Amino acid sequence: MATTTHTDAATREQYLQMHRWMCMAKALDDRMHILVKQGRAPFVGSSRGHEGIQVASTAALGADDWLVPHYRGLANSIVRGLTMKEWMLAVFAKAADPLSAGRNIPGGCFSYHALKIAPVSQVVASWIPKASGIAYAAKLVGDGSVTLCTFGDGATSQGDFHEGVNFAAVHRLPVVFVCENNSYAISVPIRLQMANPDVADRAAGYGIPGATVDGTDVPASYAVCREAVDRARKGEGPTLIDAKVWRMNSHTSEDNHLKYRTKEEIADASEHDPIMRFVAWLVERRWIAAEEAAKIQDGFDREASDAADWAEQQPDPAPEDALTNVFAAGRAQGASV
Amino acid sequence: MATRTQAPAATDEKLYRVALREALNEEMERDDSVYLIGEDIGKFGGAYRVTEGLLDRFGAQRVVDAPIAEEVIVGCAIGSAMLGLRPVVELMTINFSLVAYDQIVNNAAKIRYMFGGEAKVPMVIRMPGGAGHQLSAQHSHSLEVIYGLIPGLLVVAPTTPEDAKGMLKSAIRSDNPVMFLESMSLYNVRGIVPPGDYTTPLGKAALRRSGSDVTIVGVSRMAVLAHEAAKQLEEEDVDAEVIDLRSIRPIDWEPIVESVRKTGRCVVVEEGWSTYGVTAEIAAGVSERCFDYLDAPVRRLGGAQVPMPYSLPLEKASIPTSENIKQLVRAVVGK
Hints:
The complex is a heterodimer of chains A (337) and B (335).
Chain A: H1 12-37, H2 51-59, E1 66-68, H3 74-80, H4 84-91, H5 127-141, E2 147-152, H6 159-170, E3 175-181, E4 184-185, E5 188-189, H7 203-206, E6 210-214, H8 218-233, E7 239-244, H9 263-270, H10 274-284, H11 290-312
Parallel strand pairs in A: 1-2, 2-3, 3-7, 6-7
Antiparallel strand pairs in A: 4-5
Helix pairs in contact in A: 1-2, 1-3, 1-10, 1-11, 2-3, 2-8, 4-11, 5-6
Chain B: E1 12-15, H1 16-30, E2 34-38, H2 54-58, E3 63-65, H3 70-82, E4 86-90, H4 101-108, H5 111-114, E5 124-129, H6 144-148, E6 154-156, H7 161-173, E7 178-183, E8 190-193, E9 206-209, E10 214-218, H8 221-233, E11 240-244, E12 247-249, H9 253-263, E13 266-273, H10 278-290, E14 299-303, H11 312-318, H12 322-333
Parallel strand pairs in B: 2-3, 2-4, 4-5, 5-7, 6-7, 10-11, 10-13, 13-14
Antiparallel strand pairs in B: 1-8, 6-12, 9-11
Helix pairs in contact in B: 1-7, 3-4, 8-12, 9-10
């Protein structure tokens, strides 16, 4: 397998940083699976296989840009600055969880105002119109920010996808739509989702540019996303990117993909690990030694384990606070309403 | 050229929809973060002419003529509200808001809570409900209760031009999502609108008429009919007190309870279906809070339990009238 299809769009240091982010995401992902097996955490929605496009697309943003990720967007959030300890606070639903103060399923949604990660949703595709709204606000206020909106192939069957992308196209909003196309809507394969598996082909229908990229190819993904972000920033409107990836795990810990995927297919998916591919590319260029890459992963694995042990001991939200934040301050309405 | 022939009255009588327009105009003037989005609200001026003239005044970026796509109209409003704008959505009717129900319920109402209070959704969704125009089953229902159910939403239904303006201003300035329920049959109602900038608080019922024999609580336009019925009942020596609910969520229990404890009798009226309806909630709450004071069971009245028919006589037979309210009141007071 070719390690990349693209020449350099980023510097060596930027690529090495992307590698570290991918390793962090993998470490957290692996640790969550262990926690679920141990009965310490209730749920994991895995990002394994998606790290390449997630890191590449998010690295293409600036600090003042917005991220509207889907529920598999762990690596996106890490690039924005989410720490391992913070993530584990969310996994254990602790009071200090910065994503939701223990109110929301971990990975169900991401939200972190300080990191410009917008509150999204678990209802598939319903965040796409919101991303267009965020981009509309940016355009109205004129703050120059770009919004990155990510979703899976499953989301593209929803009406919200069409309405959100179309609206952004009509108003030439500064938004980049990235479909992380792992070819499964939970268990439903892409052939039962759409007659044309190339989501980017739909861009023409909206009058916007579309691009297809191998989402496990980090340099190629970064180049495509960078171009889309630049275009958005220049006021030239949205881009629809179809990034082909392979989902390496089950949809979530609530299902077993052996029920709907063959062993051969799952083995093939593991051959498309974006981290393996990216490390091979970095090694090929002598930017990192294989041993050094393994050491980095080991280090993050330990950090993820420590973060979990630490987070588990932090205080839970207080039951008497169960009704807070239903309404914005000054209009709090409790159970009697 | 037309010339003014009459001096303007000191306190103007205005149409309900003009009062709404004034509120939008003034709020957009005082706050650049307020913008409007909806179908046909620009050049066309809105299906009920509420937004007439606003496109010319504020431009296409702040008066967005949206595609027929309720999910993105509401979704876009939510996204931009999370970033600090104050969108005012117009949906053509509350019946079409069902298309955007997921955005409203699973998103607008829950975002603040789900994310630990981090986000605010200062958004208003304006939309009319109600029948009486032969628009049949998919344009005529009231459906207040489907939003009244939802924690995280403020749900109001102003019935006078004065309240329409004052409550819309409050809704726009609120940091919570507000479902602003107008009524098709009230747009052309005329009433006194105080001059200048004023706000009417959300979450408060209004006493429309004092009386000692029975309390009638009316929801949306039914508060207007209840008032008419009460005036007519005077001739029959029935002294009815009328409360305009105004706020469907939260419910302002205090004046209702105070009134029923005084009169000992209560009738609740809505245009929507009363089974599981707003009136069901009010009747249950009154029974819980006033049981020892009641001289008769709380009674409720709602629209016929059918998809609204098109035929005029059938439609008329499906909407509560002031005559229906009078009959129920007579039964409750034993006349």
